[in-house]
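ok so i was messing around last nite and threw this chain in just to see what happens. nothing serious, just curious
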Amino acid sequence: MTRASFLIAIALSAAAAAQQPPPAQPLPADAAKAREQPKKKGKAKTAKKKAAPAALLLPGAAAPAAAAPPLKLPEMKIESKAQDKAPAPPPLPLPGLDAAPAQSAEKKAPPTLPLPLPEAPKAAPAQPPAATAQKAVPATAPAAPPKAAPAAGVKTLSAQGEKPAAAAPSGKPMAASIVQAGDLRLRPAYDSDLWNVRGFVGGERSSEGSYTDANSRSRLGLEATRWFSGRWLARGEIDWRASTQAYVPLHSPTRSPVAVDENRFDVIATIGYDLGPSMLTSGRLEFTPMLGVQYVGIRNQAFPSDLIGPDVGGRVRYALSTAVSAHLSLGYTFNLAVASVQNSALKSPKGDFNARAGLLLPLAGGFGLELDYVNDVLAFENTYRVAHGAALGFGTSF
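result:
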């Protein structure tokens, strides 16, 4: 083998070793040939001195630190120690080999996971200088891509384990999932809706026992209430009844009833204090005892009479729900003005008892609709005039 062929063989073996991935081991046949060549021609010293500058090295590869043959194991260990003590500057990556793995690693790496640190390179026991220089290339790991900040409420992974990141508070109240209960208080505010005005229209059927036959009468009424000083209530009411009423004359020899057109007027004024909030703290109950005065005037062509006196009564209201409430009003008046002259066999009235009970249906805008049962018992000296009926009421608060 000539010197030219020997140099060509060394260059080809170095180029083949540089193209192989690290670590690359030299072929046994090439090593044997490299050792046998000096023995055959006897010119090992001159060949080594001339072959060293002609060896092809990769771009950016570091030159071997020792001048000894790189194939000997003891010299490779000394070279690795020298490199550990004084590391050479990192070689430039090859344009065709290192750029592609770095790009693929950046594409495959998830944005939220940190890349693992590369392990320290280990020195091979027997490796040519070109292979040693090539192995130092992957020591410079590609820089990890910047870690994107996780969004609020998104789970992130850490080295210790998977832990959900705390969601940032939105600051908005959960009003679509919170359902507030309806206010059942009869008076949500003591300084509002102080006035209440209601009108009534209805009819009654009255009877007087064995004296006269039953008859019907119509009724119209108006009631107004006013709250003041928190829980004090003033009430005023006026009613008008119209009917054809039968009477028995006192001095008639036949005792036959006489029918007359009659009008009755009732005027009531009372005042009371609400004890409901003290009895039931929820505000759903109103219990107001009341004291006042009442006047009843009965006017007809032959048997007029009057009733006036103190009135004792009260009213109770209770909210069954936000859509309906029940109420009851009672009153009794004792007559202090008894006429001395009597024209009817019934004689003068002694007292009057009245009651109204029903349901109130609240409407929008502070209005309300009432469905009531009404009762009135007018006591005469010789009999009772009892009436039962119904009334429809409509009112407003302001």
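not much to say yet. The first strand starts at residue 155 and ends at 157.
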